[in-house]
Specification:
alpha+beta, five-stranded antiparallel sheet, 278 residues, 51% strand, eight-stranded antiparallel sheet
């Protein structure tokens, strides 16, 4: 068993009383902070039907603070690269991060609930993590992409070396709790997108990553919500229309069916709600 912490004080009665008073102020229980994240894949049509946009969020109607200055553009050589990962580019064709602090979580919770209930939208993840005051926490939302690093031919056969890389969103959060239960958050978001693969001698295919990060410090009240948006996702949707039975005929079935391809655009919206556990 771990021995208890013991402190022996030697001195005058006055000095010991002063030392005990200081100890009572210093030896306090560290508050625990719970960070609840929600990742929504919101369709463009759903945003329009609700009248929701980052311009509205950043208006004075719900008392928000714009943090869009943290948007970090990619170099011109990569902004037009197709997004094979599926998300990460904002409306300007840039890999960007927009911050908005919602000061009235009750007002915005109605909008979040409406987004979640819309069938056109998907809740991709809802992780929750707890950490102590002054201790960092990390939330990763994405994929672990495996790839072939090198292929070596030996007399015994092929020796394949593989590796992996994380692609997606990493949120590093360091909370500091104040006496009034407000919280200062140091947030380091990082967005990484696989833009392609580079063929290397020996048969390997190395993933090419576009990665950008930011570092910002925000002070919020207990229970307030931070919204991170501006991450655009595009997907090609194929729909098949066919005449019943005739469309399934071998050889001639293609005469009675039609395939349509449409591009669906949606936005990844991440919310962080921070609470101090009582």
């Amino acid at each position: 068993a771990q021995p208890p912490n013991t402190l022996v004080l030697v001195g005058t009665a006055r000095d010991i009383l002063r030392a005990l008073e200081i100890l009572r102020k210093v030896d306090v229980k560290q508050p625990q902070v719970v960070i609840e994240a929600k990742v929504l894949d919101v369709s463009e049509g759903s945003l329009k039907s609700l009248g929701l946009s980052w311009n509205i969020l950043q208006s004075g109607n719900i008392n928000t603070l714009d943090r869009s200055a943290n948007r970090l553009p990619l170099p011109d050589s990569t902004t037009n690269t197709p997004n094979q990962q599926g998300f990460g580019f904002n409306r300007d064709g840039q890999l960007g991060i927009d911050f908005t602090i919602v000061k009235r979580p009750v007002d915005f919770s109605v909008t979040l609930n409406a987004l979640a209930e819309d069938r056109r939208n998907r809740l991709l993840a809802s992780p929750s993590i707890a950490t102590l005051d002054g201790r960092p926490a990390t939330i990763f939302i994405g994929d672990e992409v495996n790839y072939v690093k090198l292929i070596q031919q030996t007399p015994q056969g092929a020796n394949v070396q593989t590796d992996s890389v994380q692609a997606g969103i990493i949120l590093k959060v360091l909370p500091r709790v104040h006496e009034d239960n407000s919280i200062t958050l140091q947030i380091q978001p990082e967005v990484s997108v696989i833009t392609g693969f580079l063929e290397v001698p020996g048969g390997g295919r190395l993933p090419q990553l576009a990665r950008r990060n930011a570092d910002t410090t925000i002070r919020v009240g207990n229970g307030e919500t931070i919204v991170i948006g501006g991450l655009i996702r595009e997907a090609d949707i194929k729909t098949i229309q066919k005449v019943p039975l005739l469309g399934d005929l071998p050889f001639f079935g293609y005469l009675f069916r039609r395939t349509n391809t449409s591009r669906e655009k949606s936005e990844i919206v991440i919310t962080l709600t921070v609470r101090v556990m009582e």
